[in-house]
Amino acid sequence: MTKAKEKNEWVEWGKAIVIAIILAYLLRTFIFATSIVEGDSMDPTLQDGERVIFNKIVYLIDKPERGDIVIIHRPEKNFVKRVIGLPGETIEIKNHQLYINNSLYDQNFLTEDAKNHTGNFGPISIPKGRYFVMGDNRSISKDSRNGLGFIMEDEIIGRSEFIFYPFSEVGKTR
């Protein structure tokens, strides 16, 4: 192999590496990012220490939907919660049952224990441009009922899509 050919090969490898780094940066910055679940408020759906990939672009194209597991950005930290109520809806929890606009809502993502520890709340109307979120472990979750309040649309920075660590839990978030 000639020196010119060897140099050309190194230049091509360098270009490929630079392009790969730029692509990874763009994907990480604008489309996908990672987050670590801290605490047990989303248990058993997501558990403390799990790492999730979240989709950052989805809410530039669409709005959050009921049931989405979202990443909420607050100055002190990010929170992982489930969207329960949408703008303009009325939420009420009575006798451990969730009502949205006076209709019983089946929370099939909750364990029976979580359903029985939801308590009473509301009724409360969600303002325009805001969302009501709760953790799946209702008895210990800091959420819209007790500390986070209504979530502004621009505070929702992505939707949880995939657990990538620990490896025994790899898969789509439920």
From TrEMBL:
<dbReference type="GO" id="GO:0005886">
    <property type="term" value="C:plasma membrane"/>
</dbReference>
<dbReference type="Pfam" id="PF10502">
    <property type="entry name" value="Peptidase_S26"/>
</dbReference>
<dbReference type="InterPro" id="IPR019533">
    <property type="entry name" value="Peptidase_S26"/>
</dbReference>
<keyword id="KW-0378">Hydrolase</keyword>
<keyword id="KW-0472">Membrane</keyword>
<feature type="active site">
    <location>
        <position position="41"/>
    </location>
</feature>
<keyword id="KW-0812">Transmembrane</keyword>
<dbReference type="GO" id="GO:0009003">
    <property type="term" value="F:signal peptidase activity"/>
</dbReference>
<dbReference type="InterPro" id="IPR036286">
    <property type="entry name" value="LexA/Signal_pep-like_sf"/>
</dbReference>
<dbReference type="GO" id="GO:0004252">
    <property type="term" value="F:serine-type endopeptidase activity"/>
</dbReference>
<dbReference type="InterPro" id="IPR019758">
    <property type="entry name" value="Pept_S26A_signal_pept_1_CS"/>
</dbReference>
<dbReference type="GO" id="GO:0006465">
    <property type="term" value="P:signal peptide processing"/>
</dbReference>
<keyword id="KW-1133">Transmembrane helix</keyword>
<keyword id="KW-1003">Cell membrane</keyword>
<feature type="transmembrane region" description="Helical">
    <location>
        <begin position="16"/>
        <end position="37"/>
    </location>
</feature>
<protein>
    <recommendedName>
        <fullName>Signal peptidase I</fullName>
        <ecNumber>3.4.21.89</ecNumber>
    </recommendedName>
</protein>
<comment type="similarity">
    <text>Belongs to the peptidase S26 family.</text>
</comment>
<keyword id="KW-0645">Protease</keyword>
<dbReference type="InterPro" id="IPR000223">
    <property type="entry name" value="Pept_S26A_signal_pept_1"/>
</dbReference>
<dbReference type="InterPro" id="IPR019757">
    <property type="entry name" value="Pept_S26A_signal_pept_1_Lys-AS"/>
</dbReference>
<dbReference type="InterPro" id="IPR019756">
    <property type="entry name" value="Pept_S26A_signal_pept_1_Ser-AS"/>
</dbReference>
<feature type="active site">
    <location>
        <position position="81"/>
    </location>
</feature>
<feature type="domain" description="Peptidase S26">
    <location>
        <begin position="10"/>
        <end position="165"/>
    </location>
</feature>
